[in-house]
Specification:
- By secondary structure, the chain is an alpha+beta fold.
- It folds into three domains: 15-129 and 210-228, Alpha-Beta Plaits; 135-205, Molybdopterin biosynthesis moea protein, domain 2, CATH 3.90.105.20; 236-305, no CATH class.
- Helices cover 46% and strands 14% of the residues.
- It contains eleven helices and twelve strands.
- It has helices spanning 11-24, 27-44, 58-69, 80-90, 118-127, 158-163, 192-200, 231-252, 260-278, 286-293, 295-319; strands at residues 47-52, 74-76, 108-113, 130-132, 144-146, 149-150, 168-171, 174-177, 181-184, 206-208, 211-217, 220-223.
- The strands form four sheets. It has a five-stranded antiparallel beta sheet, with helices on both faces. A three-stranded antiparallel beta sheet has the order 6-8-7. Strands 4-10 form a two-stranded antiparallel sheet.
- Strand 7 and strand 8 (174-177) form a beta hairpin.
- The protein starts with 10 loop residues before the first helix and ends in a 19-residue tail after the last helix.
- 12% of the residues are buried.
- One of its GO terms (biological process) is cytoplasmic translation.
Length: 338
């Protein structure tokens, strides 16, 4: 049997095995594979969604990869230097990719997909968000509010609450917060005492997941907030834009498709006003001029227009039931003291 001091495995075989791994599937080869895969996906997919993976654990990333793979999307996470190198290599064929170079910072990932997959990606990213506790030194992504009410903490914790400017009282042997209090403001770094209090209260105020940053489509890069727009938002924005164009065209006497109906209407009003003032008659204004020349006909027209409303009031008055007349003692033939 080998002595206790002798190695159980030959060191030369270990060295050769390590060299084989470095050559076949080591870090260098993995970089080459990632480079080639990224370049191939650029040719395969028409769109890319840039995502931020800050504070997202490996388990969540694995679930997201599996979910998006179900409808054909693929996510690439790699070192920014390698991604930039791959983008520069493809810029000879597609110069529009240059707009992506400044975006390769931090924990940025690329999801390759089609335009029909944007809503699916948004739903998956929202469903895979994970609640997390507030850690000291982390910038708060939102305001942290401590609700009023019982906490279940023992009375010795009141000094801890007072140090954080939280009004409390002792109720039935436990600390109770008197009013809702903002503990952390959005953008502020979480302090050690604040994090400890949230742990004591069993509050996980933050949730982390993939955040959609921007979308690259047809050579254009635009903010992912565009996906939040609804049809009503687009329609209202379009209507407001048409209104501004119409106002500008009317103010500068510039004929446009939007302002043309208003120009025709205003011109007709001017022609009608001149015809009525000068006594000139043409077919389109003959009826209006006849009414203005005959006050009685105009009065009858005004009466006819108001008749339905008056008739409705008369009918309502007729339908109103008369109040019953009260019977008095005198009508009964005797008085109160008879």
């Amino acid at each position: 049997p080998p002595s206790p001091l002798s190695p159980l495995v030959d060191l030369n075989s270990l060295t050769s095995l390590k060299s084989a791994k470095m050559g076949a599937g080591g870090p260098a080869q993995r970089k080459v594979d990632l480079f080639n895969k990224f370049c191939g996906l650029i040719d395969q997919y028409p769109c890319m969604v840039l995502v931020c993976a800050d504070n997202v654990n490996a388990r969540t990333m694995a679930f997201i990869r599996r979910d998006i793979r179900a409808f054909g999307a693929t996510m690439i996470m790699g070192k920014n230097t390698l991604i930039r190198k791959a983008i520069r290599a493809k810029m000879e064929e597609k110069p529009e990719l240059e707009i992506l170079l400044p975006e390769c910072v931090g924990n940025t990932g690329f999801v390759f997909c089609t335009a029909d997959d944007f809503d699916k990606l948004k739903e998956i990213f929202a469903a895979r968000r994970v609640a997390a506790a507030a850690k000291p030194g982390v910038a708060a992504p939102l305001d942290v509010i401590i609700p009023a009410g019982g906490t279940g903490l023992d009375p010795s914790q009141t000094s801890f609450m007072q140090a954080l400017s939280i009004a409390t009282k002792i109720n039935r042997g436990a600390v109770e917060i008197l009013q809702e209090t903002k503990l952390i403001s959005k953008g502020d770094k979480v302090g050690a005492s604040q994090a400890a209090l949230l742990v004591k209260l069993d509050i996980k105020p933050f949730s982390y997941g993939l955040e959609m940053l921007s979308i690259f489509e047809d050579g254009d890069l635009y903010d992912a907030a565009v996906l939040q727009l609804t049809e009503e938002d687009v329609l209202s924005g379009f209507t407001a834009g048409v209104g501004r164009v119409t106002s500008f065209a009317l103010g500068t006497s510039t004929p446009t498709a939007a302002s043309f109906p208003h120009v025709v209407r205003n011109a007709y009003k001017n022609v009608a006003a001149i015809a009525l003032a000068t006594g000139y008659t043409y077919d389109q204004i003959a009826e209006t001029k006849a009414l203005l020349d005959d006050p009685e006909a105009l009065a009858r027209l005004a009466t006819a227009a108001s008749t339905p409303a008056a008739g409705g009031e008369t009918k309502a008055a007729a339908e109103k039931e008369p109040e019953p007349e009260s019977e008095s003692d005198e009508e009964m033939g005797f008085g109160l003291f008879d």
